[in-house]
Amino acid sequence: MWYLTRISPGSADPLRVTRLPIQAPADEQVRAMALSGDGTELAVVSVSGKSSIALRAYSVATGRLQHSWSATTSFSPSADEPSPVTDLSWVGDSTVGFAVICTPQVREEVRTLSISAPGNGLLAESHVVWSQHVPPPPRNVYQEGTPQACDTPFLSGNGQVVVCATSTYSASDKRLSAVWLAYPVAAPTRARVIGSILQPKDVSSLNGPDIVEWTNASGTKVIGQWNPTVVTFPGTSHSIWTTTNYVGIIGGGTVRTFTAFTNHVPPIVAW
């Protein structure tokens, strides 16, 4: 089921939740969604079986399926394995942006697809606008500070910037930082820092990827997720691993944490 939430602070009806009349296939797992800028269409990525991925566009008003595109890939649709097609966004109201994770941590690309594209092939009808390839270390052994491809690349609403998340490690003070970057499509290797969060000294790792949940149209602010892990009594049989989940809005030199999501994984939302 899909619901549309309208938030109007200070009004007589500050929170309105409406169930949408969208009927998606019941045997598929939804992995990503994005609402168009004018609020009239919803794009959804879902997976089924072991190799089928679909991107569909629905009318918000009627629930009618407007168009669908599919791709076949080697993929196990478990909750722990990220979808190779993800990170949906809208460029204007007629183009969908999405990421294709070719090899996690190594090779990825961002594509655009016109919702008026006549065919049904997701990759055949879309176009690459940005890509990144960071060769893996020998034997694929990743350690703190090992360069790797950015996590969760999102195309901004103006189509000019790809934002993503990563982490950095300072060998001098042995501290990690969660970092969010913006890559101009016109200069795809020249990243600027949207924001970073220096972790306490007792944080031993960032458990899983840092994540972009949403970006504004210009790619200057993001809603991000990060998961620092602290190990108590490391190297002993009684080591205790404690991971805390944080979600917040990052940009303009500030970080505002959403306390409601602390230690809770947020639902799949089209922000």
Task: Please describe what this structure looks like.
The radius of gyration is 19 Å and the shape is globular. The strands form six sheets. The protein has a four-stranded antiparallel beta sheet, with no helix packed on it. Strands 7-8-9-10 form a four-stranded antiparallel beta sheet. It contains one helix and 21 strands. 32% of the residues are buried. It has one helix at residues 122-125; strands at residues 3-7, 15-19, 29-35, 41-48, 52-59, 65-72, 85-91, 95-103, 107-114, 127-133, 151-155, 161-170, 175-184, 192-198, 203-206, 211-215, 222-226, 228-232, 240-243, 246-251, 254-257. The longest helix is centred in the middle third of the chain and has 4 residues, at 122-125. The chain folds into two domains: 1-149, no CATH class; 153-271, no CATH class. It has 271 residues and is an all-beta fold. A hairpin with a 7-residue loop joins strand 18 (228-232) and strand 19.
